[in-house]
Amino acid sequence: MLDKKNILIGVTGGIAAYKVVEVASRLKKAGANVRVMMTRAATEFVSPRTFQEITGNAVFVEMFGDAAHFHVAHVALADFADLVLIAPATANFLAKAAHGIADDLLTTTILAFDKEILIAPSMNTKMYENPATQANLAILKARGVKILEPASGNLACGVVGKGRLPEPEEIFATIEKIFAPSTKALSGKKILVTAGGTVEAIDPVRYIGNRSSGRMGYEIAKSAVNAGAEVILISGKSELEPPNDLKFIKIESALQMREAVLKDFDSVDAVIMSAAVADYRVKNPAAQKIKKSADTLTLELVKNPDILKELGGLKNSQVLVGFAAETQNILEYANKKLVEKNLDFIVANDVTAEGAGFGVSTNIASIIWRGGNVENFPKMSKADLAEKIIERVASLLNNDKKFPAANVNQ
Ligand code: CTP
Q: Which sequence positions are flagged as catalytic?
């Protein structure tokens, strides 16, 4: 699986650097071409010569020194690699990578690299749990960088807690998994999911919003990642953490969501539009905070574009899924939206029912298929409903007829 794969290991200055010698050795034995770059601090823990002996390749430390025989070392190293592993990754490295700082060979190479990056942080528990480090990890995850969580145990600094570099076997197994050919239902497919509520500005301080938590859409995105898809999650307002292993795009208004969705529409296989998009926006949002004066204040609203309807008009082979959050005549209204927006199926729910709707972790939904067949689901977690939706999207994309325009009542 790793035969002839080009793997670049970046070692930063942590005590666990010695464990990475074993990782390099295993990768090499598995047939990979391994190159190593180190920060200067890392060389205080392990000698470059050790990595050189293990990999059979020169080790790179200096931006303008030992790599002179490479044309432009950072670009050449970035071009060489199918995967970059950074282990151990210090808090300082995470901060630099999150903010695009390129002040040595290792960080510059990362910036010039656009394929898979796996980072294995290792540090003192307090440094790991520091909000600064956590925020940097969140930035990197949102960019699609894979993070191998540190293990808990005795740390070199004498503390017991989270921060240990995982054992070499685990790091190796994670790399193998990255290169494993996938046979999952959505492997090779690209799925765009929207989630959360849009925010329509009244002035720089106030906005018109809605009660969407984003949870349904975030669960759908996670489920699509688990099914092997490449996922883009475009999110309006939500308090939730961006899920791992996907491209996360945060927007505010319906117009911004439209722009982001249209930008990727041509390249995706399916769009699942679970966002609560505001139907109207303030015509002229005030540039400055509106001061209170008269007893009444009138806001003029103008209609927002219906993003899903627009996609329905543009679509060629894409699968399109919509949501209908209703308070009455659920099936009738949902079916109307299904037809008007040219969808493959629509997920309808009564947001006033107990255990469904906003801010709760369960949902009670029906799926209405093009052609009118209906599946009624019992109350279930949003995660389970997300999985059902993804199964159906996969079935349509793989044309396996598992759900024959589904006339199933579950
Ligand atoms: N939707 C959209 N753009 C809008 C409004 C809605 O893309 N401006 C999408 C939603 O993400 C959802 C579906 O259309 O998947 C239905 O949204 P909903 O608000 O239930 O329906 P509307 O078409 O806005 O109709 P109404 O508000 O009158 O019920």
A: 157
